[in-house]
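Recap from last week: sequence in, structure out.
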Amino acid sequence: MPTRSLGRSGLAVSRLGFGANAIGNLYVALDENDARDAVDAAWDSGVRYYDTAPLYGHGLSERRLGDRLRVRPRDDYVLSSKVGRLLRPHGRTTPHRLSVAEGGIFEGELPFRPEFDFSYDATMRSFEDSLQRLGLARIDILLIHDADEWTHGDAIGDRLREVETGALRALRRLRDEGAISAFGAGVNQATACERLMDLGEFDCFLLAGRYTLLEQDALDGLLPRCMAQGVSIILGAPFNSGILATGAIPGARYNYQPADTTILERVARIEAVCGAHDVPLAAAALQFVLAHPAVASVIPGARSAAEARRNAELVATRIPVALWDDLRAERLLRPDAPSPATVQAGASLK
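Predicted structure tokens:
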């Protein structure tokens, strides 16, 4: 699997990564064997970058991922996890559905309640707790998780002050001491990345769903700024929580919720263009985001070995230039959005 440099960190990540939210029982409970097989199949497909978080399954994702990576040579892959939430035992013996903001999108999660804390001490503790859940001696990249208005609403100002005086100070220390190689943030808003960039230097951002085949507003501010400052983007949720993989079917998810009529209609139009060129919608979704020079890796999730292998096949699917031309002609793709075709054309002129 080809790799790309991650900002100024000196790390190189595989252009196709593995987002481990699905093996944390995102939406539905996953059998242990299926979770294991998904990670193993991703590895066999050449994936060498893996991302997880304490939130995913409330510790379950980190445990499952660590069990499979622990048998691999540690220097052969790059691993990221997140800080910003501590897991507290909730003491309940019966299932309890949390709100989406609290992490209530997991089924059969471990018996912990995520609690936001961006302080210095909490960041250091979160790092150590993740190492223990993973059973590994090193995490390469730490990301500040969900320090955005999407999650905190009007309280975001207070959260960002806590990030500036707490989490950022801890992450700088960990990087300076060599405990981690890079740090960044994992958020659901492009504007949140820019607000964080105003607080200090970051190596990367894991941007979930805000630069995709469906929406490209990040071209207006964030992506040019990342290029100018040498900051890399890891593109999470490249299918916008599912709809760019399933297509515009009833119940298709967008931003973790059932998609509304406007989104369904737009995706149906994109899907029709892809179908006219006999290209899977999901292949176009993955390859589109990788065309932007700020994007170092795209990290779709996988619930099974078949899905993990499919992701690798989609990244390698041949897509005719005419597909991107037709998307632009239908005003489904911004004129200034790089596509694989424009990247190849640029390379041929050098």
